[in-house]
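To close the section, here is one more complete example, presented without commentary so you can practise reading it yourself. The ligand is S-adenosylmethionine.
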Amino acid sequence: MTPSARIQAAIEILDQVIAAARDNGPPADRLVADWFRGHRFAGSKDKRAIREHVYDAIRACGPMPATGRRAMLGLVEEQPELRALFTGEGYGPPAIGRNEKPAEGGIAPEWLENRLIASGVGQDEAEALLSRAPLDMRINRLKVAAGVPDLPEEGETLALPGAVRFPSGTQVNAWEAYDTGVIEVQDLGSQLACSAVGAQPGETVIDLCAGAGGKTLALAAAMSNEGTLVAADTDRRRLSQMAPRAERAGAQIAREVLLDPGKELDALQEWLGEADRVLVDAPCSGTGTWRRNPEARWRLSEAELGRLTALQARLLEVAAQLVKPGGSLTYVTCSLLDEEGAGQVDAFLKANPGWRADLPDLPLGTPRGAGTRLSPARDGTDGFFIARITKA
Ligand SMILES: C[S@@+](CC[C@H](N)C(=O)[O-])C[C@H]1O[C@@H](n2cnc3c(N)ncnc32)[C@H](O)[C@@H]1O
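Output:
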């Protein structure tokens, strides 16, 4: 493909990304993969260039652009060398008209930018939310007792023991260590969230929003496969992805429990007031993961954020009923919005005087309310809020 044809391909994909963001359709990475499947003539260099154009253009637009072409014109503002590729020849995009307007830049739609500012997120931090994430891995201590295993590339060891960083795009899934569960792909922020739980061998630990088990596997490793580890979620599809991952990782203690939304405690009766630790990795807006899903900025609405914050508050109350006296609840969101983080925990502590904040000792992060905030700019992680609270 010519460089111009790659730009036109990216514009076509961007049109689909915009339509999907509007209609709650598939995520951008799926649309990119589908486009490649339908256009077999695209070689590996074409694919790399097209993918980069698509993601760079998404990052270049704050609010959702009207069309893929306008998104790409937004990118031309940042990368003026692309202008020459709008030739109108062959499979390339038509020449840029004199009055054609690029999409608006910025960090996010205005209402969302305002919420970030209100949550104390500065310009540098907000911009870093749109940078590219490196590839972080966790060394699975169920497979490798200590040190860093031999890997095809040398990574950077990070502030948390067992965390190693590689450049974005490293093909770790082709490595034997990945196949055999010696390493797990997991952002350093997620690893810190698991470390904050402080799970110990022999304890009873409940991962209330376990999803496909990313954090459950880390908890199983922290517990050395000893004790009771409940992986609960309301999403059957996500939960069903855990078993093969757990098998690969050698995580034998994870026990899946499917929950009924609104009646979560029905399936968790046997652990009421019994858990040493509960992790609530709550469903959230994901503002802290824009490095990976930059189009998520266009999918979120104020109404959806309201629905999520109400669910988070309810899940905190549900989780609290599982914790035994002296036990702890770790509340995590991958968001930098206070209403999903510090605000939730403050409200919980006010309404539940028997609980107190118990700040985990993490090597990174900045205090925020009763917890800790991790951010891409300061900590090199996805954006997270992590708080641990203890029941008297
Ligand atoms: C941030 S994700 C969890 C990610 C997962 N812990 C991991 O590390 O990969 C939030 C999860 O909450 C689940 N969820 C949504 N509503 C829930 C509810 N009422 N009770 C329990 N889980 C719920 C979602 O299905 C989703 O898997």
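Once you have examined the tokens, check your reading against these statements. DSSP finds 15 helices and 13 strands in the chain. Residues 190, 208-212, 214-215, 233-235, 238, 259, 261, 264, 281, 283, 315 surround S-adenosylmethionine (CB under 6 Å).
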